[in-house]
Amino acid sequence: MEYKINDILEVTAYEVDRFGQGVSKVDDIIIFTPGLLKDEKAQVTIIDVKSKFLQAKIKKLLTTSPERKTMTSKLGALDLYHLKDDKQNDWQAEITAKEFKRSLGYEAPLGEVIQSEKTLNYRNKVVYHVLDDEMMRLGLYTTTPIELVEVHTFILNSHAIQRCIAKIQQQSIKVDPKVFKHIMLRSNEKEEVLVTLVAYEKEFTGLKELVEKIKTFKEVVGITLNIKPNEKTILGNESYTLYGKNELTFTEGSLKLKINDRSFMQVNLPVMIKTYERIASEINGETVIDCYSGIGSIGYFIGKNAKRIVMIESNKENIKMANDLKPYYQGSFEIRSGLAEQVLPKLDAEILVIDPPRAGLHKSLLTVLNQKQFKKIIYLSCELNTLTRDLKVLRETYKLKEVIPVRMFPQTTSIETLVILER
Ligand SMILES: C[S@@+](CC[C@H](N)C(=O)[O-])C[C@H]1O[C@@H](n2cnc3c(N)ncnc32)[C@H](O)[C@@H]1O
């Protein structure tokens, strides 16, 4: 049977894939439908025809699963919102197990999912996009089709971010959307907000007016302007402080952290802390390398459990932040500046903690890790594909002790995973 765009089919999903799409089959052709849950029946509209599969969108749900919490959200940033929270944990564990089986050929020793009760308003960083309009309007992207739509309330925003963005959206300001592209907001537990305007140029229509307004909002402690380097990348390396400080501090128990508009920091603090506690529980007085250490959040957190921590980080600003934080912590810390693949071969330690960007580990680094024979490697990953790719190499020397799904991004299909490897 030949299918074409806009055909309408009736399907029943037999599983939900890792992108949150219901997977079904008609006449042996696979149909992917975002937002359709397992065992749900729906009328779907075909939106793309490929040789081996069809891409569809829900036209009408004919039956609803008991696992459904609400209607499917149109926003890409809420692509699992319709699934009950506890079932989202099960979904992540299943997707992780399947990926390990598919890629490594054996069952993953799955640990309990690290999660928090707070599954809404957890994001301490959100990026809004400027709509193509003369008057400033801000929004987020939908999934099928991918479109930028105006959004006023985004339920993952921290309360401080929500209050601040609502006030920004109330302003009637003329802007040039060809130059002014995004607004990023970061907040801390004191409900302070750092606002970053992202544009292709240092000057744009409406900039001064916008800054004058935003600086009057009581939660705002800093406003920066970041220069967008290209269409694909949101933030560039060039930032200017327009008001207050380009800095936000976080204090959580004995952990104190400091970031600027570009520093990496996990977006979900309660889950971050639980994950770091799990990492710390693997360390008992050993020497540790914290590789890809950023501002030092993992290294400083686990410092009390280690004999000595050596951090490796390539970004100079992160290294400065990490150095500024040193006096707050007791213990032996050293911060090495440089690329992991160049610095790590020269170092030795008993345990390695590794938290790379999505791209995973450099090929040459994997070879070195096998040669080094660490007692343990603790690998925190935000990309399942590169994690299993790297583990395929590391299994020459290390055995998988535990694979722990981390529910860092509730209501979404983004997956964080913590893996404990032993020599
Ligand atoms: C996922 S973040 C982890 C940061 C930190 N562990 C944390 O949880 O806050 C990855 C970090 O690796 C750094 N980085 C990226 N490539 C690197 C490389 N080749 N060598 C060393 N650091 C690198 C980035 O600057 C970033 O700070």
From TrEMBL:
An annotated GO BP: rRNA base methylation
Domain (TRAM): residue spans on this chain: 2-60
Species name: Acholeplasma hippikon
Residues the entry annotates as binding S-adenosyl-L-methionine: 266, 292, 313, 355
Classification via InterPro entries: NA-bd_OB-fold, SAM-dependent_MTases_sf, TRAM_dom, U5_MeTrfase_fam
Keyword check for S-adenosyl-L-methionine: yes
Active site feature: 382
First-level EC class: transferase
SUPFAM superfamilies to which the protein is assigned, alphabetical: Nucleic acid-binding proteins, S-adenosyl-L-methionine-dependent methyltransferases
GO molecular function, one term: rRNA (uridine-C5-)-methyltransferase activity
EC number: 2.1.1.189
UniProt keyword annotations, A-Z: Methyltransferase, S-adenosyl-L-methionine, Transferase
Database matches in PANTHER family: RNA M5U METHYLTRANSFERASE, TRNA (URACIL(54)-C(5))-METHYLTRANSFERASE
Gene3D superfamilies reported for this sequence: 2.40.50.1070, Nucleic acid-binding proteins (2.40.50.140), Vaccinia Virus protein VP39 (3.40.50.150)
The keyword Methyltransferase is annotated on this UniProt entry: yes
Protein name listed in UniProt: tRNA (Uracil-5-)-methyltransferase related enzyme
Family: Belongs to the class I-like SAM-binding methyltransferase superfamily. RNA M5U methyltransferase family.
